[in-house]
Each structure stands twice: as C-alpha cells, then as structure tokens.
C-alpha cells in the first residue's frame, strides 16, 4: 500500500470518528427531541452537514499535513 493511500485512510478514519462524535453532540444537546418526522429529518440534516463539513476539513488537513512532512523530509 502506498504512503499516500495509507495516510489518506488514517486521516479519513480520524475525521470520521470526530464527525461521529460531533453529530452525536449536536443531536443530543443542540437539536431538541423531534416532535414530527420533519423535525427529525431537519435535525439529522443539520448534524449531518456539520459533521460532514468537519470530517472533510480534518481529513484533508491531516492528509496534506502528512504528505507535506513526507515530501519535505
């Protein structure tokens, strides 16, 4: 397995774990308990957007950081 692929997988797993924790915290503390199917869908959409944004940012950031260190050293 290539270095870049290995680091991308690790960064993706770290970003996914952080995103899952963020999604849980948003659903538990920020979005109130849904009273209807629409409220449930809206809450899931909000937490999914926030966790996807964070996991994408962290995944790309960590991958670029690792690849940058490998090519500099």
Topology:
Elements (H helix, E strand, L loop, with lengths): L2 H28 L6 H36 L1
Helix pairs in contact: 1-2
Query: Stretches where pLDDT falls below 50 for ≥5 residues?
Result: none
Quickly give the structural class.
mainly alpha
Instruction: Tell how many strands the DSSP assignment holds.
Output: 0
Beta-strand fraction estimate: under 5%
On the 0 to 100 scale, the average pLDDT is 82
Distance between the termini: 20 Å
Order of helix and strand elements from N to C terminus: HH
Number of discrete helical segments? 2
Largest sheet: none
Structure characterization notes:
The chain is mainly alpha-helical and 73 residues long. It has one domain. Helices cover 88% and strands 0% of the residues. α1 runs antiparallel to α2. The longest helix is centred in the C-terminal third of the chain and has 36 residues. It is rod-shaped. The chain starts with a helix and ends with a helix. The mean pLDDT is 82.
